[in-house]
User: Which sequence fits this backbone?
């Protein structure tokens, strides 16, 4: 397939690079248009108050690559409108692999990774967001301290990327254009070649108190609050699926928002 790839962790993310390598190895014709800097938790925002710059670049990915100094939504929108027409006509959009999970109703709408896929959906394309669950201490080292993935984590990401490359055509072939359907995939912390895929629903969670009390100069800072899972019983949620070591596949059908 012809795939447009983006993410929200920036063009430099090794998780993105592993995804691109796996897609190319699986025979998918791929181009990358990704943000210059990390855009986590930007949701589907567009850059409004300044211009956005796109640059053709070589990051050793063996495919056409652009860097956009905006959000994932900016990147996909600019790619489909200006960078690719006449040269590359993508059949679908893949966003990720995100550093950390992107499940639950509390986080899906805030996710820049999911938003990159959603921008493809808004252009009538099938799309998939893919995210890698990792332990909290590992997340802290990668995000806050700029650490490189350990060999063990990199092996997991390689397995996840291979799964994504295999699942993409299966999901996209069953998703018609202009369907407003997005596939949200979350890989467990220890993903293997034989890890099974399960259909799930996003967990229903409350996410209160994620900002600190005001400090001396009146600033509130983002922090992790205590998440409350209030999901109905009897459903396999994305959270429960990943916690038991399986790959979560939630189908987000936005047409249901328009139903009475």
Assistant:
């Amino acid at each position: 397939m012809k795939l447009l790839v983006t993410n929200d962790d920036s063009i430099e993310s090794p998780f993105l690079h592993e995804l691109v390598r796996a897609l190319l190895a699986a025979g998918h014709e791929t181009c990358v248009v990704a943000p210059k800097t990390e855009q986590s938790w930007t949701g589907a925002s567009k850059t409004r108050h300044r211009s956005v710059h796109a640059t053709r670049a070589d990051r050793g990915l063996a495919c056409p690559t652009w860097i956009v100094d905006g959000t994932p939504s900016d990147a996909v929108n600019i790619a489909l409108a200006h960078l690719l027409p006449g040269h590359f006509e993508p059949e679908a959009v893949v966003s990720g692999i995100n550093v950390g999970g992107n499940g639950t109703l509390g986080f899906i709408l805030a996710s820049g990774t999911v938003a990159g896929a959603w921008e493809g959906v808004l252009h009538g394309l099938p799309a998939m967001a893919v995210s890698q669950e990792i332990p909290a201490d590992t997340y802290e080292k990668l995000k806050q301290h700029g650490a490189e993935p350990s060999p063990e984590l990199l092996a997991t990401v390689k397995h996840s990327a291979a799964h994504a490359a295999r699942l993409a055509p299966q999901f996209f072939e069953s998703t018609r254009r202009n369907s407003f359907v997005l596939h949200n995939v979350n890989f467990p912390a220890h993903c293997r070649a034989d890890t099974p895929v399960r259909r799930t629903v996003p967990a229903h969670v409350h996410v209160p108190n994620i900002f600190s009390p005001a400090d001396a100069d009146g600033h509130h800072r983002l922090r992790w609050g205590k998440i409350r899972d209030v999901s109905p019983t009897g459903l396999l949620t994305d959270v429960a699926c990943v916690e038991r070591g399986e790959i979560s596949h939630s189908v987000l059908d936005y047409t249901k928002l328009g139903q009475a």
Notes: The longest strand covers residues 92-99. The domain at 2-203+236-258 is CATH 3.40.1210.10 (Stationary-phase Survival Protein Sure Homolog; Chain: A,). DSSP finds seven helices and eleven strands in the chain.
